[in-house]
Design goal:
The protein has about 375 residues and is an alpha/beta fold. The protein has 14 helices and 12 strands. Strands 9-8-7-6-5-4-3-10-11-12 form a 10-stranded mixed sheet. Strands 1-2 form a two-stranded antiparallel ribbon. β5 (about 155-160), α5 (about 165-175) and β6 (about 180-185) form a beta-alpha-beta unit. α5 packs parallel to α7 (about 205-215).
């Protein structure tokens, strides 16, 4: 009798408390990862805490949780995030571009549609639950919708990073292809300053028009911005966030400027975290206010408080030519998918001592010790075989 009563009490407890516990679990999960627990959007009925993660209780979220379980069972790193550069061309010349010179190679051809489709299938089989489409400028690739359609949406959420020039014109076909989220790059709240920074007159106006169209179609929409120390001192972050609020974006993703690409000679960005920490703390007030978009930081993600530097641990980058790199800011090459299976390259990358564990101290590319060890300060990178 006592056993039956205990079972009934357990069932009653679960019936009355499980919902509250699920809410608490989700809120704490995202508070740790994002530094806030604010739902920023409901996409297709599912709550979204950040564009950079699958919507809560969606199938890609289930895939992420399942892969985390298998990661523990196998005692082996599995990737949950892939950034795929779909092309090597761009219609802007951004001052901070990490792709420029470091990745683009004029004598090589971008992967064909068939090759990209196979890569996506292989990446999803390996465990990827988030796929970023980047470039170059990805909207300059005409068959981008076909690439998006190649993603099994039961397993992965899809995100586009774009400068926004062609977004208004192509948003409908992206929606039909099944794209989930869009980050539009805005690096200054002033149109002239933004266009000058990106070397493209009229870009700011076109980007805002694209954002408006994307919101109307139901995408989760965010601003992706790069903030320099001098820009932060001049109040640019606050102006960007206020702009995001005024145009109704769901999130502002903040990258602190990194010493790579066109900024590879900026030694002031190496081992310099005080201003970044101040910047992260300055956004707490916005995340507590439901009238503002969520504000998340690359620097926070890579810190000891969140997941740490995930490059080569749970994340990898694919160049337009099929080269596998640990991240789009560290340009060391570990293999090419046209020459060997993706899983073999991942196994090589993720078992190296410097990559088999997440670096809690922050992004590796900003660490002078790592830069010296990997000989990446020249921006040329290494080929690891």
């Amino acid at each position: 009798m006592k056993k039956i009563w205990a079972s009934l009490r357990l069932r009653g407890f679960l019936a009355t408390k499980a919902l509250d516990y699920s809410v608490d679990f989700v809120k704490i999960l995202y508070r740790i990862y994002l530094n806030h627990d604010k739902v920023i959007h409901f996409r297709n009925g599912y709550p979204v805490y950040s564009l950079s993660t699958p919507a809560v209780f969606s199938k890609p979220a289930s895939n992420f949780i399942a892969r985390t379980l298998y990661r523990g069972i196998q005692n082996k790193n599995l990737p949950n995030l892939m950034s795929l550069a779909v092309n090597d061309v761009c219609n802007a010349t951004c001052a901070h571009c990490s792709f420029f010179t470091a990745v683009e190679e004029a004598d090589r051809s971008s992967l064909t549609l068939y090759q990209v489709q196979k890569l996506i299938k292989d990446a999803q089989e390996l465990g990827v639950s988030v796929i970023n489409f980047v470039g170059g400028e990805p909207l300059l690739r005409s068959d981008l919708p076909d690439i998006i359609r190649a993603v099994d949406k039961d397993f992965s959420t899809t995100i586009l990073f774009t400068n926004g020039w062609h977004l208004e014109a192509r948003a409908v076909e992206l929606k039909r292809a099944g794209l989930d989220s869009i980050y539009v790059s805005i690096d200054a709240a002033d149109a002239h300053q933004h266009d000058t920074f990106r070397g493209k007159p009229g870009l700011f106006k076109r980007a805002l028009a694209g954002i408006k169209k994307a919101k109307k179609l139901g995408f989760s929409v965010g601003i992706s911005t790069t903030i320099t120390p001098e820009g932060y001192d001049q109040g640019e972050l606050d102006r960007i966030i206020e702009l995001g609020k005024s145009i109704g974006v769901h999130e502002v993703l903040v990258f602190d400027a990194l010493p790579t690409g066109r900024y590879k000679h900026r030694e002031d960005l190496v081992d310099n975290g005080d201003w970044i920490e101040e910047m992260v703390q300055s956004a707490i007030k916005y995340n507590r206010d439901s009238d503002y978009p969520g504000v998340v930081f690359f620097a926070y993600f890579t810190s000891h408080r969140s997941v740490g530097c995930a490059c080569g641990t749970s994340y990898f980058y694919v160049s337009p030519y099929g080269d596998i790199m640990s991240c789009d800011f560290n340009h060391a090459k570990f293999g090419n998918v046209l020459e060997e299976p993706l899983w073999k390259i991942w196994n090589r990358l993720t078992t190296l001592p410097e990559f088999c564990q997440a670096k809690w101290g922050g992004c590796k590319i900003k660490d002078s010790e790592f830069r010296q060890k990997e000989s990446i300060s020249s921006g040329e990178g290494l080929v690891r075989r």
